[in-house]
Amino acid sequence: MEKSLYKCWVALFVFFYSIVFTLVITTPMSLENQWVFGGMTAFLLICMGKTGSRRFRLAMVLLTAITSTRYMYWRVTETLVTEGFAEAVLSLGLLAAECYAWLVLIISFFQTGRLLERKIVPLPDETSEWPTVDVYIPTYNEGMEVVRDSVLAAQNLDYPSNKLNIYLLDDGKRPEFGAFASKAGVGYITRDNNEHAKAGNLNNALKVTSGELICIFDCDHITTRAFLQATVGAFLDDENLALIQTPHHFYSPDPFERNLASGRDIPHEGNLFYGAIQKGNDYWNATFFCGSCAVIRRSALHDTGGFAVETVTEDAHTALKLQRKGWSTAYLGIPLAAGLATERLSLHIVQRARWARGMTQIMRRDNPLLGAGLTFAQRLCYLNALLHFQFPLARFVFLTAPLAYLLFGLNIIEASPQAIAAYVLPHLFGVVYTNAKLVGRYRYTFWNEIYETVLTFHLLKPTLVTLFDPKRGKFDVTDKGGVLAHSFFDFNALRPHLFVLVLLLAGVIWSTFRLVWWNSGDEQLSVLLFNVIWASFSALFLLAAVAVGSEQKQVREYVRIDLEVPAVIHLEGEYTLMTSTQNLSMGGVQLETPPGLPGDAYIEYIEMSFDNRPMLFPVEMVMQDKNHIRLKFHDLHVNQRRELVKLVMGRADSWLEKGEVHQDKPIRSIITVVRAVAGLFFKRWKEHTLFSGGAGGGQKSRAMASNGITSGAVATTSKSMWAWRALLVALIVLGIISSQRAWSLTPGEGRLPLDNQILQSVNKECSATDATDNDVVKDAAT
Amino acid sequence: MTLICMTSPKGGVGKTTLTANLAYTFQRQGKHVTVIDFDSQDALKLHFGFSFDDTEGFVAEGQQLSSWENLVIQTHNGINVLPYGRASREDRLAFENYLKTPGKLEEALFPFYQGENNVLLVDLPPGHSGALDALSRLNPIFLTILMADGSSLAVLPTIENGDFFPVEVEDNIYFVINQLDMRQRLSVDVYDLLRSRLGPLLLGSIHRDAAVPEALAAQTSIFQHAYSSSVINDLEQIVDNLARVTLSTNARFSSQGRGI
Questions:
Q1: Which residues lie closer than 8 Å to A719 by C-beta, 6 or more apart?
Q2: What was the ipTM of the complex prediction?
Q3: Which of 3.30.420.40, 2.40.50.220, 3.40.50.300, 3.30.70.1030 would CATH assign to domain B2-259?
Q4: Are residues A507 and A400 in the same domain?
Q5: Measuring CA to CA, which residue among A654, A676, A691, A679 is closest to residue A555?
């Protein structure tokens, strides 16, 4: 009864909202009135944003939906260019990109409007009621260094040993992995083909094992001991639950954190998805499977014929298939395992290209809008995930759109810059401000643009090709666990970004020339300004992307915990000294130097106690001074390594966020963007920021051993550094010269004959990316 | 009151050295410590700076005295020592009889361990002895010293059967492992086994450390000779545990006393 009453209220509300919505977006207004309208919405948003109430957040979403839709309505009805082929096509293209962005915005408002903060369901006291669990650790070509600790960590899981089986699924069929598995005491499963990559590997293991629940960890994911304690209870609580997903946490820096000066001051790239989107999905019972750090019910998998093999993103597709069969999925937003991030930009691109391809495949082959078994909300949540990966084309359009005017004088929006400003500013403000309030803890303003700009050129082809031919594309395994001996500039990955940057720069110079010497007037100046501002934003994001590809040297980072426990130093000749540890990692330990340690003492072993049991670790001296001794572990026995993993990375609270998360402030956020770009030009400052840990503050991981840079590497870095500095100086000089020209010349006086040659050459250069038109500058004033 | 008897079913486990080191540890914690040597080897005194030629001791002289306070030799460390002393065969036999007389030994030793601050450490000879039986009447804490090797493991059942100690003290038998060498696979395995078998009765273990015999050779305590040795930490842990079990034992006895 109460429920239907509630439904009535909701229906009534939706009815009235739609009336208001339609009225507001369609009402024509004079420019002044539109400004007033924009100012009012902004004021209202700020007032509502100041309160912390969830209802007001919802109201903000509804209001922003109105301003954004009003902008789109205006764009569609009044600003389309219909004259001239090139202009009409480009104008339509931009509009299509904006429509896409609007659609994604509205769906993501729906998706993240309400977040479900799921709690752990405790397991019953009686362990006989606990289900049996198979832990799968699939691997293909990853190194032993990466896989070993993940397997040992899985063995540390707190779960009755007669109900827990761990299997290493080795598609690489490497004998040393089999040997390791038997030494560690876990199952080892291989198969005689590699069909369907990871999904096939998992399906093969399903056939030969029998646990009621399947727990999957990617081979670099090191679980905490509490993982099953936190996740399995949910399956006993809800008979219909097929999957519980937990976040992917990374203990090594991704390219953004590593290569950007401000990369560690912003939320991790994955936070938006694991902090907000998945919780929103969970609210609508539409949590995706993310391939790792999840538990799945075997009987549910039987229902769908195992893991999905039709696409290269088997995880999301498996979840979709489960949900079509009526199973529910859940998301527990507590990081209970951690893995390696993709280290380099090029690897990041490969990984995302696979995701984009896989998601596009799902869109083509098993579109969530079609077919049976899903609720409307589930369809929207899945659709948004698939739509998200269609961003490359739209982002490409947004980045390059100002070129149409700057290079060719084409106007692709039929409105004065003042009118555009009056409509677009309230829209942009609404989107930025509402998002900052809604998901600002998980992603800062403008960073979404950077993440997309980095990928956009490389993902264009995979998404478009797959959209037309979903059969194409194979499963690329993401390389992990590598190190980088010295810094380098990933020119290959950044070629398109640099190319567009040069075009933007050329466009700004060229259009300034045009304005100053050829056709100046008030109208002209504002159009130019509008386009230059747009181009500057494009350039800022492109520069940030370029900064991401400016690869910082990477030494292996170990997770290091500050830990003060007693330790005993065993010296050569049976002397033992007591001391205490200062910090501990999988690679080594730092001790307090005990008084009375002879300077020439040779330390053979370190003894530390785990669960009250002393263990001896063979060590090698790294460094010793009067306060610290740093030691590196020798080859550790499997049992020792397992204990070490438990202590260093396996504690239940290992990955919980310790510092408080700052709410997004758009102004502060743009400073982080500028700092990221500045790091490109001031390398030494960037390295200082990154390695001193000053700005990063509170980072657990630190570079372990310093790596000697070869002189050749020094020479190349300094050369590129000078090139960038020269470029910066040239930019500034050019800016000054051109602006002074503009001041010194009065209108009309400065008209000079058009230099056709320059035009021709620019024209040629651009023909690769944009449609060409012979009389490119025929009328810049329209 | 703290009365601790150091025993071992077999010799050569470093019992006397451990007695001396525990005495130093107690003393560092501000206790008034007395050590008494019931082993005819008379080696305990060497740990306190005595020369082997010193002949004084309670075996020859103590049988006639009701209180042994005059026999105590105070060392410059502040620890009171009652050495076995030089004794003829007749003295030793007479002393065995003396030990069998009820009440005598109690009266002689009582002043050394009564009171909050007094600790009496008794170094018993290895294996069975008349002194062990006599001291059992004083309700001491028995600290049995084992080594993490095969032979200690072999003698453990004789203690667990109740063959070694009189039945009335069986609640007060505790263990320590001496000269634990973590580098040896066997000793780690034996150590693990002993830990699981003895559980809370194991009050601690002491690392094998070359600094311990060196300290004896230098006629000084380990605290002075190698002040950062891990052995010191081990000793302190054992002393803490002894203090804990003493408290509970005393509480048990006093409550029994009230019951009567």
A1: none
A2: 0.87
A3: 3.40.50.300
A4: yes
A5: A691
Q: A576: number of CA atoms within 13 Å, CB side?
A: 25
pLDDT band at A485 (very low <50, low <70, confident <90, very high): low
Domain-located, residue A365: no
For residue A443, being part of any structural domain is answered with yes
pLDDT of residue A484: 65
User: Which residue in the set A574, A604, A614 is minimally distant from B209, CB to CB?
Assistant: A574
Report chain B residues whose CB lies below 8 A from the CB of A596. Answer: 226-228
Average pLDDT over residues B112-128: 89
Q: B185 to chain A: nearest residue by CA?
A: A616
pLDDT tens, B67-89?
888 888 888 888 999 998 888 88
In a domain, A320, yes or no: no
Residue B104 to residue A451: CA distance in whole angstroms: 90
Strands A133-139 and A213-216, by their bridges, are: parallel
Could you tell me the pLDDT band of residue A658, with boundaries at 50, 70 and 90? low
Rounded CA separation A190/A188 (Å): 7
Q: Could you tell me which residues of chain A have a Cβ less than 8 Å from any Cβ in chain B?
A: 566, 568-570, 573-579, 594-597, 604-605, 607, 613-614, 616
Asked whether residue A243 is domain-assigned, the answer is no
Where do the structural domains in chain B lie, given as residue ranges? Answer: 2-259
- Examine the domain organization and report whether A500 and A634 are in the same domain: no
Assign residue A570 the CATH number of its domain: 2.40.10.220
Q: Does pLDDT of B170 surpass 90?
A: no
Residue of B nearest to A612 (CA): B195
Does residue B256 carry a pLDDT above 90?
no
Percentage of chain A beyond pLDDT 90 is: 47
Residues A514 and A424 in one domain: yes
Last residue of a domain, one of A606, A633, A648: A648
Contact A576 B207 (CB under 8 A): yes
A576 and A466 fall within a common domain:
no
Residue A315 a catalytic site member? yes
Q: What residues make up the domain containing A40? A: 2-112+390-479+491-548
A650 burial level (CB within 10 Å; 0-12, 13-18, 19+): buried
Same domain, A586 and A470: no
Collapsing DSSP states into helix, strand and coil, what is residue A507? helix
Question: Which residue out of A134, A170, A171, A282 is catalytically annotated?
Answer: A171
Query: Which residue, of A630, A648, A666, is where some domain finishes?
Result: A648
The catalytic position among A254, A315, A490, A770 is A315
* Total of domains in chain A: 2
Residue A739 has a pLDDT of 44
Average pLDDT over residues A402-423: 86
Cα dist. B95→B31, B69, B113 in Å?
29, 18, 21
Among B234, B214, B236, B235, smallest CA distance to B225 is for B214
Return all residues near A350 (Cβ < 8 A) that are at least 6 apart: A476, A478
- Please name the residues between 174 and 213 in chain B that touch chain A, using a CB distance below 8 Å: 181-183, 188, 192, 195, 207-211
Cβ of B227 within 8 Å of Cβ of A579? The answer is no
Contact A435, A112 (CB under 8 A): no
- Distance (Å, rounded) from C-alpha A512 to C-alpha A735? 10
Considering the domain architecture, whether residues A394 and A543 belong to the same structural domain is answered as yes
Answer yes or no: is pLDDT of A702 > 70: no
Q: Are residues A534 and A401 in the same domain?
A: yes
Element of type H or E holding B60? helix B58-61
Q: Binning pLDDT at 50, 70 and 90, where does residue A519 land?
A: low
Q: Are residues A85 and A7 in the same domain?
A: yes
Whether pLDDT at A535 is above 70: yes
Residue B202 and residue B175 in contact, taking contact as beta carbons nearer than 8 Å: yes
Asked if B225 has any chain A CB less than 8 Å from its own CB, the reply is no
Name, in order, each residue with C-beta under 8 angstroms of A35's C-beta and a sequence gap of 6 or more: A422
Q: Give catalytic status of residue A522 as yes or no.
A: no
